[in-house]
Design a protein that fits this description.
211 residues, alpha/beta, Rossmann fold, seven-stranded mixed beta sheet, 7 helices, globular
Length: 211
């Protein structure tokens, strides 16, 4: 009998891991279109060796973005990319869940200019609550956790205590040893299968009008 499985993906953590993976392979992250990632195929492929798994649901967790004004081109670009990603994931039957917010912080430079950094807050808490709830409500016999956030270890222990097994799904280049030790088992993405799941960006060249 196949085990009912729910996959939980820490979106920003996952994206940053892919960026690190591409850089380790001497590839530029910015030449790939992450918003078009073939995520369901990637997840189902890496878990295909576990014949007794029945993936009933895949959840992708992200933070809500906002624009900070007309001159805030960086936030607007991030919002556009997120909308494209949500559309792509929805077409693959993957749920995008907002569980936090992104805050912009100012970083004053020595020359007087101000740069900004964006910090995600609340996603890990939302994932932790959902993980324990799945175990408490017995919605699945196994959770596949795709995150390398060590802050989730307490929720992992609580979920296991309630009888739900957890598979840590990480990256072979830099797995989280703590989560590997805490969870029931671990499965790791191979570099090439991740690269194959992300299409290159297409260069849209404007056609010159004939005079």
């Amino acid at each position: 009998m196949k085990e009912k499985v729910i996959v939980l993906i820490d979106g920003e953590n996952f994206r940053k891991s892919i960026k690190t993976l591409l850089e380790s392979e001497k590839r530029s992250y910015f030449k790939y279109d992450y918003s078009k990632i073939k995520l369901r195929n990637l997840i189902e492929g890496v878990l295909s060796s576990h014949k007794n798994l029945n993936i009933s649901e895949i959840r992708y967790y992200g933070a809500r973005l906002k624009s900070y004004g007309d001159n805030d081109t960086e936030s607007k670009q991030k919002i556009a990319e997120q909308r494209s990603l949500i559309s792509n994931l929805t077409n693959q039957g993957i749920k995008f869940l907002f569980k936090g917010n992104v805050r912009r912080r100012e970083l004053p430079e020595q020359n007087g200019e101000i740069k900004y950094t964006f910090v995600e807050k609340g996603v890990d808490v939302g994932m932790a609550v959902d993980m324990v709830s799945i175990a408490y409500d017995k919605k699945a016999s196994k959770v596949v956790l795709c995150s390398s956030d060590s802050d989730l270890q307490s929720a992992v222990r609580e979920t296991l205590k309630r009888g739900t097994k957890i598979v840590y799904l990480g990256f072979s280049i830099n797995p989280n040893k703590g989560l590997q030790a805490t969870t029931s088992e671990s499965v790791l993405f191979r570099n090439q299968e991740v690269i194959d799941a992300i299409p290159h960006k297409t260069n849209k060249k404007k056609k010159r009008s004939k005079k």
